[in-house]
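Justification of computing resources. Each target in the renewal requires a structure prediction run like the one illustrated here; the chain below, 206 residues long, is used simply to show the kind of job we budget for.
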Amino acid sequence: MEMRYKARLSPQVLEMTGLQPLVRAYFEISQLKQLYRQGWLHRGIQEAACESVAEHTFGMAVLAMLIADQYFPGLDSTRVLRMALVHDIGEVYAGDIVPGGGVAKEEKQRLEREAVRRIFQGLPNGDQYLAAWEEFEQGETPEARLVKQVDRLEMALQASVYEHMEYGRLQEFFETAALEMLDPELIALMDAVQASRKAYPDADRK
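Resulting structure tokens:
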């Protein structure tokens, strides 16, 4: 599947002699500012309005912080934020692989894991960042389960934004997000998002 970008960083930048590992990692990760969230493009969102992967990460990290602080004060907020910030970093090299894009889930995970290792391998705390990514992928800790739910909730909120911008009905994104909500607090937030849609007649426009 061909990925669509706003622009691309020249590969020569990453091959500069003497480039500090931290700066190189930043240059790599910053490419997520240029990578569109492909699912929105497939649903007809124009490039001028389409969010980047980095914009999704920002929104998700803020949302995770607010939800953790308000509803889950017993969780490790540092781990929550770290997972939110690194969960899509594998897309630097793997791209934003969407369901139905012809790539199996296992292959997607392999490609992203290799990318995360490649980006963080030269950093002193690289193993910690990779561990945070792995924790999110496995989804077994309370923090990881929360971040996974927030990932989908943020998607639903962005879909709501696009509906209010009159890009048509984006029902499948809400249905997918609702299936991932496990905690009562997140279910209630998802219900509130759904209710806000019904208040806007334009949500039913094709």
